[in-house]
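check these tokens.
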Amino acid sequence: MADQNPLPSSASLIRHEPGVPVIRNVNWAGMNALYMKEVRRFMKVQLQTVWAPALTTLLFLVIFTVALGRGGLQVMGVPFADFVAPGLIIMGMVQNSFQNSTTALLSAKVQGTIVDYLMPPISSGELLFALVASSVTRSLFVGFTIWVAMMFWPGVNVMPHHLWAVLFFGIAGSAMLALLGILTAIWAEKFDHAAAVGNFVVAPLSLLSGTFYSMDHVAPVFRAISHVNPFFYAISGFRYGFLAAADSPLAVGVAVMLGLNLALALICYRGLRQGWKIKA
């Protein structure tokens, strides 16, 4: 009869063997779901994750411009306020990128919900990409908020000269810290371990990377030490986007950012794939 349901086709009766992947290419839907989940997580507490870091960074600008910017001090041929503003923006971006990726994975480990990351049908690479992308998104929100606020601060010029440098070094620096945060969360067993990395590694490296000073004004020994600090290249390149001047060659900064991000991504991928301190 015409109104009867047709018999199911042979394709609908196919049963996949256990362990055989059904999604053989990139699981865009799953990766996007995890990305949106992480973005919604930090946006639900945006007063703490976006607005508070932006306010803290603006307080740095207020303090330094009031203390040093009123006397006509110039660095790299521009007023001190214009020099320090880009460094403050990217410093806030990278620190929040580290906090976001660390909190996401470590909270799941501590609370026993790490299975929510391991059971869905997404690969280790897709999991890593979604976590890094969400952390970079938070850093961009923070950086944009700081930049808009600085636009209205008197005596500060933060109009970009080279937008490509602002975007590249901002995203590459944020991705570097997001990967470092994921690696920290994989290694850490409690929040004290992650806090130790943030306080004794991330904070000193970001503060002692040329954020508040030019390499022309420091001793040669300290300048040499700063050149092995990867934060220095991120801040120098990001500042170039605003001032068209940098403390290091742009080609070196691009190579360092790409190489370090690739190395950190491979280490994190291997840790997630093997389940080191995650699946045990």
